[in-house]
Amino acid sequence: MTSGSLRTILCPIVFLLVAPLGQPLRSATISPREYRLRFFHTHSNERLDIVYRRGETYLPESLAKLDRYLRDSWTGEVHHFDPHLFDLLYDLTSSVKDDGGEIHVVCGYRTPASNETLRSRSANTGVAKNSLHMRAEAIDIRLPGVATAKVRDAALQLRRGGVGYYRASNFIHVDVGPVRQW
Ligand SMILES: [Zn+2]
Fold first, then answer.
1. How far apart are CA 182 and CA 163, in angstroms?
2. How far does the centroid of ligand 1 lie from the alpha carbon of residue 140, in Å?
3. Residues 19, 86 within the same domain
4. C-alpha 46 to ligand 1 mean position (Å)
5. Residue 112 structural domain
6. What pLDDT is recorded for position 31?
7. Against a cut of 0.70, is the pTM above it?
8. Same domain, 26 and 42
9. Residue 152: which of 166, 138, 132 has the closest Cα?
């Protein structure tokens, strides 16, 4: 048998072996992981369903939409959010097996003036003077269908910043500042 005829016999066999294995590898490299979040805002009643990151790339138009969506509820002022906060929300929802579930937003960005107004209301003793809401590095949320205490525990386990639990109002605060708890 010549080496040429041996190749003719082997080639289809090699092809059959490689093709099924090659398929999933190829599709994995073509489409990077999509990071999607779904929100309902309890002040504006607006919904947002958005892919904010693909693989390692944050999508600037999506981040701009999120900044606007999470604007100060009292003044309408917009501030650029730290995108790591969205990664935190993404990992938080998946850690409580609520991937793609709607996140109810209680509060996003706050101007210093709005923060002061909230602080001055006696009922809102949980509003800090140097709140990270004023740096667009914090968000107050609840996940409908998941007990808020369970979401708090999951956020604490992530150890990615501050976690506050507001039992009476049924929400948690998460931020991407130093790791702390209240
Ligand atoms: Zn907060």
1. 7
2. 5
3. no
4. 19
5. 34-181
6. 87
7. yes
8. no
9. 166
Q: Which helix (H) or strand (E) holds 102?
A: strand 102-107
58 class by beta-carbon count within 10 Å (0-12 exposed, 13-18 middle, 19+ buried): middle
Report how far ligand 1's centroid is from the alpha carbon of 53 (Å).
24
Identify the pLDDT of residue 132.
97
Closest of 107, 100, 144, 84 to residue 115, by C-alpha: 107
Q: Ligand 1 centroid to 178 CA: how many Å? A: 14
- pLDDT, averaged per 10 consecutive residues of the chain (182 residues), comes to 50 46 56 96 98 98 98 97 98 94 97 93 74 97 97 98 97 97 96
- CA–CA separation, 115 and 161 (whole Å): 20
171 DSSP 8-state letter? E
- d(CA 155, CA 63) in angstroms, rounded, equals 22
In this prediction, residue 121 carries a pLDDT of: 83
Distance 79 CA to ligand 1 centre (A): 16
pLDDT of residue 127: 84
- Supply the pLDDT for residue 94: 96
Q: Quickly count: other Cβ atoms within 10 Å of residue 98's Cβ.
A: 18
Specify the number of domains making up the chain: 2
Structure tokens at 178: 């130093």
For residue 14, the model assigns a pLDDT of 45
Q: Are residues 90 and 140 in the same domain?
A: yes
Q: In this predicted structure, what is the pLDDT of residue 177?
A: 97
